[in-house]
Structures are given as structure tokens and as C-alpha cells.
Write a structure and sequence with these properties.
About 10% of the residues lie in helices and about 40% in strands. It is mostly beta strands and about 140 residues long. It has one domain.
Length: about 140
């Protein structure tokens, strides 16, 4: 999916699904140090290709986060190899994984995870219409 070999993420539209599937893995990230942050980089225009996941690497694992559409999120662990180029649906668009390329994210490198919050937005009086509104990673130091 998304032109990434062997990447088959589950689509989440609400926080309960993410917690059901990944709560233990997310809790294990607390106290872990971020070592690298990888993003998809469109080579011809020299800019961040935001339709692909952001990969946050730790010593023992990596988490891949993608807000593919406004109400669809992908959360996976250890599924993407940054050594492989991205084949964006046969378009020939030159996209490669780049390490620590976004200055606005580099402040997090070498910091430890303090906690992870999953933000939910509910519309109306019922909880039937709740949407995933974001994922916040708080850092120590």
C-alpha cells in the first residue's frame, strides 16, 4: 500500500481500534529514546511527500504513523524497510526515505518518550460519532 513493498496497514477511523490492537506496544515506548525519524522525500521537487508514513526509530523497534486521509490513520510497528524506494502507484515519481530531514521534527531526536495520547473528537450527544483527531507524543527533557 502507498507504494511501499509489503506494507499492509490496518485502517483506523477511531481510537478504540488503535488501543485494542497496539496498547501494549505503545505503552512499551514510554522511556524509549528516539534515534531517527524517517520521512518519504520527493526527490525531483526536494520536498516532504506527506502521503506516506513518518517512521520513528528506537533502539529495538520503529513505529510508523500515517494520516492518509482526514479520518483515516495507519499505525504499524516494524513493517517498513527504509532501504527500499517507494513505487508510487506506477507514476515514476522519485521518492526515497530520508533520515532526520524535517527540521521541525529533529528536536525529538535523542529525547525519551514520556507518554502517548490518542485524541478523540466526538460530535453530537452520542459517542457513536467519534473520530480519531490526532496522536500526541510527549517527550522528556
Amino acid at each position: 500500500m502507498l507504494g511501499i513493498k509489503d506494507y499492509n496497514p490496518k485502517i483506523y477511523t477511531n481510537p478504540s481500534g488503535i488501543l485494542k490492537d497496539h496498547k501494549v506496544q505503545l505503552e512499551r515506548l514510554k522511556g524509549k529514546q528516539i534515534q531517527e525519524i524517517w520521512v518519504a522525500w520527493e526527490q525531483a521537487s526536494d520536498e516532504w511527500f506527506r502521503d506516506c508514513p513518518v517512521i520513528i526509530c528506537f533502539e529495538e523497534c520503529q513505529i510508523e504513523l500515517c494520516a492518509f486521509k482526514w479520518d483515516e490513520y495507519f499505525v504499524t510497528f516494524d513493517e517498513i524497510s527504509v532501504l527500499q524506494d517507494i513505487e508510487w502507484y506506477g507514476t515514476g515519481l522519485p521518492i526515497k526515505w530520508e533520515k532526520n530531514k524535517i527540521n521541525g521534527l529533529n528536536f525529538a531526536i535523542n529525547k525519551r518518550i514520556n507518554g502517548i495520547e490518542i485524541i478523540e473528537r466526538c460530535e453530537g450527544k452520542s459517542t457513536e460519532f467519534c473520530f480519531l483527531d490526532g496522536i500526541i507524543i510527549s517527550l522528556l527533557g
